Amino acid sequence: MNKLFFDISISGHHSEYLTHLINSVPSSLNDNYYFIVHPFFSKHFPDLYEKVDLFENIYIIEVTSHEFNKTQKLSLIKASYVSYRIMNQYAIRYNIDQVTLLYFNTFQLSTIFYRPKYSISGILFFPLYSTSNNVIYKAFKYLKKYLIIKLFSYNPKIKNIFILEDTQIVNFLNKEFKTTFFKTLSDPIPNLSPLKNFDMKNHYGINNNNKVFLHIGSLSERKGTFEIIDSIYHLPNDKQKNMTFLIVGKATDLVTEEIILSKIKKIQKSEYCKIIWDNQFISNEMMKSLFNQSDVILMTYKNNQGSSGILGHAAISEKILIATNNGLIGRLVKEFNLGLLVDKVHPKEIADKILESIDAKIDFKKSKSFVRRKSVKSFANTILEK
User: Fold this and answer.
1) Could you say which DSSP state residue 103 is in?
2) Does domain 2-185 have CATH number 3.40.50?
3) What is the Cα–Cα distance from 183 to 171, expressed in whole angstroms?
């Protein structure tokens, strides 16, 4: 059987999931595995190519820059159809029997209409939620998502749709749409190795006595990035002097990047607190080092209905997490005592929890059980159907 795995994004969980799967492919030559990835994947993950060279049944294929660029800055409808056509070309080229879309959200609309020869599985993030405060708009968004799921559920080529962690929503969707293909998937926590001889404070020029508050990953308005930066204005000057805000990652678009830069410049001019933006994609080893050496992880996402790899990285490094008190993430933080929660993503509320975190004592016994149940092996075996 020929199996294709498609994800041409490279930030955050996208590259993590691909890494887990490529490292977990069985050595059996009965099946061939084709991973269709970002144009610069080899630049960031050369070690995976060294592994693949040892096997005859694993192939990593980068889409061209032209193909990748065609998928960017499009409406949801156009992105769905353009992405599907690119994926389908590779599926036809390699005579694929089974496709797994590691970010199924992009393909929801196209799978309503297309009935390929191969079966389709995928990971669906945030299936039925809206974060808007506008009641009418929120109801409209919910209804739109509901109808899209209802329509693609009629596609007989869909084999599995995985939803991270949320058994409640999986049970609801299977019952509501009279199917069994929605399945719960454990969001993996990789046990990464940190960089050798790496000192975060020395690397970034941070005072040894400062507490470091880390906000890491893909940066955007929905990740609460703007509010996290603005929370500095609500911190007392005497506390600010002993704080460093470390923001690591790329903005989702140029407009967001300009807003972040503007906010940081204003902070640097008017406040005592040190704020650093490492505006780049970093290696897994460096990411692990940052989690290990930071004091508090800031994850005040506006959409908390799905899981997040940041949650797991904070838990395995036993760092206090500040997150939002709703949805799946809110439930997990409370159940496993992973940190502190804000009721609303607002600069003042975030600042209050930051101050609380300075003297907070977290018992990480429960977080250890959380880490144990979210193994990379379980995740990969489910996707690869081992």
Assistant:
1) T
2) yes
3) 8
User: What is the spatial distance between Cα 283 and Cα 268, in angstroms, rounded to a whole number?
Assistant: 27
Residue-wise pLDDT tens digits, 265-298: 999 999 999 999 999 988 889 999 999 999 999 9
Sign of CA dihedral 22, 24, 27, 28: negative
In tens, the pLDDT along 210-253 reads 999 999 998 999 899 999 999 999 999 999 999 999 999 999 89
For 140-175, the DSSP string reads: HHHHHHHHHHHHHTT-TTEEEEEEES-HHHHHHHHH
The CATH number of 200-372 is 3.40.50.2000
- DSSP state, 192? P
DSSP state of 295: S
What residue spans define the domains of the chain?
2-185, 200-372
Q: Are 264 and 277 in contact (CB under 8 A)?
A: yes
- Order of strands, edge to edge, in the sheet holding 243-248? 274-278, 243-248, 211-216, 296-299, 320-324, 339-342
Amino acid at 363: D
Q: Any idea what DSSP says for residue 244?
A: E
DSSP symbols for 32-61: EEEEEE-TTHHHH-HHHHHHHTT-SSEEEE
Phi, psi at residue 220, to the nearest 5°?
-165, 170
Does the fold of domain 200-372 match that of domain 2-185? yes
DSSP helix/strand/coil, 99:
strand
**To 5 degrees, how large is the angle CA 160–CA 163–CA 166?**
135
Comparing C-alpha atoms, which of 158, 144, 146 is closest to residue 113? 158
Q: What's the CA gap between 153 and 175, in Å, rounded? A: 12
Sequence-separated (6 or more) residues with CB below 8 Å from residue 152: 108, 109, 111, 112, 158
